[in-house]
Amino acid sequence: MTAEDLKKLVEANFANAAVEVSGEGANFTVNIVSDAFESKRPVQRQQMVYAVLNEFIASGEIHAVTMNLKTQTEAA
């Protein structure tokens, strides 16, 4: 999986989100700004993203993900 593939996957699952992905191989950093995270605790936000990525983590396409997850208000 490439960073661009991962970005498209996240964008498809988080409508109207600002998504940045960096990394190579199977290690990535994902920055997502989305109002979907509103009133969610940090662990809940991570669970939302892992729900999208679990299939690729299980297959080994993704080994490690560092997440920075914010709402629009937090990012401003």
UniProtKB/TrEMBL annotation:
It holds the Pfam family BolA. Belongs to the BolA/IbaG family. This is Acid stress-induced BolA-like protein IbaG/YrbA. It comes from Reinekea marinisedimentorum.
